[in-house]
Amino acid sequence: xxxxxxxxxxxxxxxxxxxxxxxxxxxxxxxxxxxxxxxxxxxxxxxxxxxxxxxxxxxxxxxxxxxxxxxxxxxxxxxxxxxxxxxxxxxxxxxxxxxxxxxxxxxxxxxxxxxxxxxxxxxxxxxxxxxxxxxxxxxxxxxxxxxxxxxxxxxxxxxxxxxxxxxxxxxxxxxxxxxxx
Length: 181
Fold this sequence. Notes:
Elements: E1 2-9, E2 12-19, E3 22-23, E4 36-39, E5 49-54, E6 59-61, E7 65-67, E8 80-87, E9 98-99, E10 106-107, E11 110-114, E12 119-122, E13 126-128, E14 141-144, E15 156-159, E16 177-180
């Protein structure tokens, strides 16, 4: 039984929910893993258990059962379903690109990427090895942060030291000059 109590305290109020006698926050909805499924109803109220399973021929890595905690988070680790009989080619990473965690080059393996703070990720944050033995996409790349390139001008041109990156004050003290044509 779900019961929510509204408490009025002078001008402010608070909402406390009791789910089967357990007080707390709802958990975010769990998604089915790649090559797997949620087994039965996966409720998001505290105390609820969600069972997760992999498709036939895929092995489980992670937690097959997760419980919604009163603080609004799930116990355990996300489930990954892997088929070691199907492999993807090893990834070659562009300069500065790093992987966030393990990357399995077998069907169901997910690779997550990141860039240094001074760069921006161009492309997907993650890719996965498909059950056909190919990657879902090419790895992303890292682009250095800096001033954006100056655009061509209608009826004019830029001259001087245009395009130098790394000068935070470039737009205010630029040696570039605009010549009207």
